[in-house]
Amino acid sequence: MPVERTAQSALEALKKALNQLDNEVDRQVETSRSSTEATAELSRMIEDRSRLALELDQSQDRANRLEEANREVSRRLVTAMETIRAVLDR
To answer: Which residue windows are coiled coil (predicted)?
Structure first.
């Protein structure tokens, strides 16, 4: 009988160890999956950042060109007004 109990105890300990191993494998798989998903998300965020940085640069360039055009139009209007005043004063 003690041999049977020892064998029974050994089998129960083995089942417990196998269950723990199975749980740990599941946890490792989930951790790996989460890591893979996080890496993919980070990659998407880096791509989005690059795209947004490019769009921002393009928008800033356009704003600078519009500002320069605005200054040029303003300068021309001042010149035109001065010319008109000079003509009217004659």
So the answer is: 4-83
Question: Per residue in 14-69, pLDDT tens?
Answer: 999 999 999 999 999 998 888 889 999 999 999 999 999 999 999 999 999 999 99
pTM for the structure as a whole: 0.56
- Cα–Cα distance, 45 to 90 (Å, whole number): 67
